Amino acid sequence: xxxxxxxxxxxxxxxxxxxxxxxxADPTPSDIDMQTRVAQILTSMPTATSExxxxxxxxxxxxxxxxxxxxxxxIEPAAPTETTPADTATPEPTEPGAVPTVVITPLITAEPTAEPTAxxTQATVEVTPAQPTPTLSATDPxxxxxxxxxxxxxxxxxxxxxxxxxxxxxxxxxxxxxxxARTDLDGWRLSWPRIEDYYLEATFQPGTCSGSDHxxxxxxxPEPSKADQGYLLGLTCDGRYSLRRWNARIGxxxxxxxxxxxxxxxxxxxxxxxVNRLGVLALDDRLAVYINGVLVDEVRDSTFTAEGGFGVFIxxxxxxxxxxxxxxxxxxxxxxx
Length: 337
Description:
Elements: H1 2-17, H2 31-44, H3 48-54, H4 79-82, H5 105-125, H6 141-145, E1 150-152, E2 163-164, E3 168-173, E4 176-181, E5 187-190, E6 198-206, E7 214-221, E8 229-236, E9 240-247, E10 255-264, E11 276-283, E12 286-291, E13 294-300, E14 309-315, E15 323-333
Antiparallel strand pairs: 1-15, 2-3, 3-4, 4-15, 5-14, 6-11, 6-15, 7-8, 7-14, 8-9, 9-10, 11-12, 12-13
C-alpha cells in the first residue's frame, strides 16, 4: 500500500510540473505561411498614407516678412472688381467643392496696372490757377496800382439800391449786377461810398445790342441822393466812347455838355456779350479815359472836383430792354498815374 501511495504522489507531482515547462516549439513555417502572416500584420497597422495626410494639420513654418505665402488660397468673390485683367485669366472652379489655386504674387503684380489708370484722371481734374484776361500790360492801371482801396464783386448787391424805378431795373444773380433800361433815356444807379481823387474801373458785358446802345460809369456826383449832376463816361455797342458833363439844375430840361464826343477806339470789343473794362482817372481837374487798361483820351474840367458819388448807367437807343452785366467794380484813392 505504501508503494501504491508513493506512486500516486509521484504521478501527481509530475502532472503539476508539466504546466511549468515551456510549450513545445512550433514547426518552422513555410515561405507561403510567412507571406500570409506579414500581409495580415500590415493590414491591421495604420498606413503610411494616413500619416502623411495628417501632416498639413500641423502649423506651417512662418514665412519671412519679404516672402509672399506659398500656401494655396481660394479666389475671393469680390476680386474681379478690385483688380485688373489678371483676375479674368484666373480659372474658376469646375467642380463643386473644388478650390482653384492662386499664388498671391499675381495680386501684387496687378497693383502697378491700377496706378496708371488713376494718374490720367487726376491730371484731367487738376485746376489751373485763373489768369487775368487779357494779360495786364505794364501800363495798365491795375498792374501799376496794386490792390484796390475798395472793390465789389457783385455777389450780393449790398452796396447798391435794389428794385425798379422809371428808368432802370436792377438785380444781382450769378455774381453779377444785371441792369436793364426801361426807357430810351439814360438811367443810373449809384453806390454808397463818396470819394474825391481816384482811379475808378468796372467790367461790363452787354447783352443783345446794336449801334448806339450805350453803358458806362457815372462819377463825381456832388449829391448822390439826387444824382442830378456829374460826369458820364460811356461805350457804345458798335465800339465808340464819349465823356459828358450833366447838370440838371441848368435850364428847364438840364444841360448835357460833350467833353469828348462819340469816338471810335480799336481797344473796344464791339458787339453783344463782349467784355470791356472801362476806367477813369479823376485827379483835380484831370479826367483820363482808360479802355481795357489802355489810356485812350484825356481832358480837363473843373466843374465838379469835390468829393462825390459814383455808379453805373445804361442807355437804350436801339434795343428794347437793353441789358448789361457788371461783374466787378473797384477804385484806388490818390493814385500815382
